[in-house]
Amino acid sequence: MSFIVFLILGALAGWLAGNIMKGRGFGLLGNIIVGIVGSVLGGFLFSALGLQAFGFIGSLIMATVGAVVLLFLISLIKR
């Protein structure tokens, strides 16, 4: 069950980050991939800053922040 929640969290975080950064999502699979990679990056960033995320909403915020940073870094590389 936690794997399904992890995928849902990744999809939501990827969709939110896509809407924040470029105004639309990336499709279901793209959102999941961006959200999962973003959650790893967000976990690293939050721990480096000494922050912690609790619960589903906290995890969603952390993953979304990480996904936004990921999309920002990708946009810098593409230029």
UniProtKB/TrEMBL annotation:
Any idea where this protein resides?
A: Cell membrane
Task: Note one Pfam family from the annotation.
Answer: Transgly_assoc
| Keyword field contains Cell membrane | yes
Which organism does this record belong to? Alishewanella longhuensis
Q: What is its main location?
A: membrane
PANTHER family in the cross-refs? UPF0410 PROTEIN YMGE
What stretches pass through the bilayer?
28-46, 53-77
Family, as annotated: Belongs to the UPF0410 family.
The protein depicted here goes by the name GlsB/YeaQ/YmgE family stress response membrane protein
Q: Name the UniProt key words of this record, in alphabetical order.
A: Cell membrane, Membrane, Transmembrane, Transmembrane helix
According to Swiss-Prot or TrEMBL, what is its membrane topology? Multi-pass membrane protein
Q: Does the keyword S-adenosyl-L-methionine apply?
A: no
